[in-house]
Specification:
Elements (H helix, E strand, L loop, with lengths): L17 H24 L13 E22 L2 E16 L1 E7 L2 E7 L6 E14 L2 E5 L2 E5 L16 E21 L2 E3 L4 E4 L4
Antiparallel strand pairs: 1-2, 1-3, 1-8, 2-5, 3-4, 4-10, 5-8, 5-9, 6-8, 7-8
Length: about 200
């Protein structure tokens, strides 16, 4: 009589137990979705890498509604760099100029002249410095916990950090030394890009 172990056993096809799969997968998907949502809203810091080169941004006037500002950092070729993060729900900029030096030449972008300003939604700027000849903040709160900022852009800094927010902002003769700019929509009437001098 042949040994029991030498008998050929019928192959068993694997089956997916969908109920167990759902019990394991649904919470994981929910947690991942929550983390992505919090990152998009700025509640969780995401690691942003930049080119390692600042660019200059100037404007005759910036007008914005839904303003938040707090400290953060970006990572460039020289390591982490501190930045001032400014978020504006809806912004308009007259006589916008942006310039960056690439090797021996300067790339220059202009837009928003002739009475048609540049407009941006959900504008976020990471800058090392910002100046203006005059700034007006309406209904401003200074010194608020950066993790609790509640203006419409929906961004936030690290809990316990210094932050400020305002219903609206106007800055005349804006000058920013910027590492990174993002926007949901950026409309540039009268756009011109070429090589020339700095702004």
């Amino acid at each position: 009589m042949p040994d029991e172990d030498s008998k050929t056993r019928p192959s068993v096809h694997g089956k997916v137990r969908w109920r167990r799969f759902a019990i394991a997968a649904v919470p994981a998907v929910a947690i991942a979705g929550t983390l992505v949502g919090l990152t998009a809203q700025g509640a969780i810091a995401s690691s942003i890498s930049v080119s390692g080169q600042e660019f200059l941004v100037t404007a005759g006037q910036l007008n914005g509604t839904g303003f938040e500002q707090f400290g953060g950092q970006v990572t460039g070729s020289g390591g982490p760099r501190p930045v001032i993060i400014s978020a504006i729900k809806s912004a308009s900029l007259s006589n916008l100029c942006q310039s960056v030096t690439v090797g021996p030449v300067t790339l220059r972008l202009t837009a928003g002249g002739g009475g048609s300003p540049v407009t941006a939604d959900n504008l976020v700027v990471d800058a090392s410095g910002q100046t203006g000849s005059e700034a007006i903040f309406r209904n401003i709160t200074i010194g608020q916990d950066a993790g609790t900022l509640s203006e419409d852009p929906g961004t936030a800094g690290q809990p316990g950090g210094f932050g400020q927010q305002a219903d609206s902002i106007t800055i005349d003769n804006l000058v920013q030394h910027t590492w990174l700019t993002t926007a949901g929509t950026f409309t540039l009437p009268g756009l011109s890009i070429g090589f020339g001098g700095s702004c």
